[in-house]
Design brief:
By secondary structure, the chain is an all-alpha fold. It has one domain. Helices cover 73% and strands 0% of the residues. The longest helix has 34 residues, at 106-139. The protein is globular, with a radius of gyration of 15 Å. The termini are far apart.
């Protein structure tokens, strides 16, 4: 029996490799998500809960809960991921978003948030690809 960590990582690798546009993008896309899973370098729990949590849950709800994560294990819908990415872009571009008035540590949080935005781009692309594949099966 695989541990939750191993199962979560294998699940992530499968999602990325079966849905990336090109073979050469698998490694890059996987790296974006792995970087975002870590959370902010300064342990900003507010940002971790808001942005890292949904990404961790998308990889594996069981793993996220098993490691005692401080983040929620709710898996977001495509619409929720798009909304989260939009909020994140506002935070990166304007240093403000509803619920978070200002970044506490702009330098390290900006680095984390840029990785997170790249990860959200990959997740959104994968979820759109999955929806398109499901629609193709229905029409076949």
């Amino acid at each position: 029996m695989k541990g939750f960590g191993e199962e979560g990582l294998l699940n992530l690798i499968n999602k990325v490799t079966s849905n990336s546009m090109e073979v050469c993008s698998h490694d890059r896309d996987l790296w974006y998500i792995i970087c975002a899973l870590r959370g902010p370098d300064n342990n900003d729990n507010e940002l971790k809960k808001k942005y890292t949590g949904p990404i961790r849950a998308w990889v594996s709800q069981d793993w996220n809960a098993m490691v005692g994560s401080t983040t929620n294990s709710k898996v977001f819908s495509l619409r929720e991921f798009k909304s989260l990415r939009s909020e994140l872009s506002d935070l990166i571009n304007y240093n403000e978003v509803k619920g978070i008035t200002q970044l506490k540590d702009t330098d390290s949080n900006s680095h984390y948030l840029s990785h997170t935005r790249l990860a959200l781009n990959v997740i959104i692309y994968i979820e759109i690809s999955k929806e398109e594949k499901a629609r193709e099966k229905v029409t076949d």
